[in-house]
Design a protein that fits this description.
Shape: elongated
Helix content: 25-40%
Number of helices: 5
Strand order of the largest sheet: 5-6-7
Largest sheet: 3 strands, antiparallel
Radius of gyration: 25 Å
Strand content: 25-35%
Distance between the termini: 49 Å
Order of helices and strands: EEHEHEEEEHHHEE
Oligomer: single chain
């Protein structure tokens, strides 16, 4: 039988030596195994003489949750996490004019805004940054997705206009819902199915 295995690995930034590794079964939710890894990682860091007050874990959005945040606090670990923007829409209302230019260690300057904010019921410090390269990539991806959806809707409209066998409204509406399943498309597209001369039309 095919089994999926995952490997958790803790390495130093230089010279990239492994300080901790942990194997676990795949196809499991992150919250089931991550707290155990945190505890084992904390013990390992202490064992090899690494002072925890100088260690900071970086948690990506896929691993960040209320349970993991509670475990990080319980284990007294420092961390930086990435938030899912859709969960904190109020942060998008902060005007760009309120941001300040910040110079990073590599010399790059970016706009940033710092504020206290409730994250999973706890007030934490949140830093919002604007990454122009990432934003350009996201806009490019969104424009491509919009163009693809428009082409698919046009193809559906053409099929409805030329088919010899009338299609049921419910079937067409399900097809439209499938084509516009993107999380933001309900804000960008407005469709209506009409019956004209015995045929359905968009």
């Amino acid at each position: 039988a095919l089994r999926e295995l995952h490997l958790a690995l803790l390495v130093g930034r230089a010279p990239w030596l492994a300080g901790f590794f942990f194997g676990y079964e795949g196809n499991q939710p992150v919250h089931q195994w991550f707290p155990g890894i945190l505890s084992a990682m904390r013990k390992r860091l202490s064992l090899i003489g690494q002072e925890l007050e100088y260690q900071t874990l970086v948690i990506d959005p896929g691993n960040y949750s209320a349970a993991i945040q509670a475990d990080l606090k319980r284990l007294k670990l420092h961390w930086v996490g990435s938030l899912v923007g859709a969960w904190h829409p109020e942060l998008f209302k902060i005007p760009v004019t309120e941001f300040h230019e910040v110079t990073l260690t590599n010399g790059t300057t970016i706009p940033a805004y710092r504020l206290p904010h409730q994250v999973f019921g706890e007030e934490l410090t949140v830093v919002i940054t604007i990454n122009e390269q990432l934003r350009a990539g996201q806009l490019r991806g969104m424009n491509e997705a919009i163009a693809a959806a428009q082409a698919q809707l046009a193809a559906l409209q053409a099929a409805l206009a030329t088919t010899r066998r009338p299609r049921k409204r419910a079937v067409v509406e399900r097809e439209i819902a499938r084509l516009l399943a993107h999380e933001h498309f309900h804000k960008l597209f407005r469709t209506e199915v009409k019956e004209i001369a015995g045929r359905l039309s968009l």
